[in-house]
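Field reference: sequence -> structure
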Amino acid sequence: MTSARSNESTTTALHRPAFIPGVLGAIILLAGLALVDSAWFTYVLYVVSILALIMVVMAVQGRRPLWVIPLVLVAVVWNPILPIEFPETVLRMLHIVGAAVFIAVAVFMRVPEAQPYVSEPSPEDD
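Structure field:
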């Protein structure tokens, strides 16, 4: 006699929780290349750092600590509160590197899907 549970697949489904913020962050960074010397660049700083920190939370919750390091670096480099001054060519190269970090995390950070909690009946329910 086999139970229904033994027939189920033992592999857990994986998903990419940081895919949308990662792609959006890469798009913002690449679009921000055109805004480096404008007043709109402050908005790029805010959006990029917020998206990086959102992805840090997703990495921590998904127990993927190695992805936290590059994302924290992105959040620090594009910090709007205490901005770090870089020469324009270095900043433009950092935009490309930051976009690559966002895409890499979006594609390669996979976490197991959360299983719904099913409580077992207590003995008092009988």
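Note: The chain has five helices and two strands.
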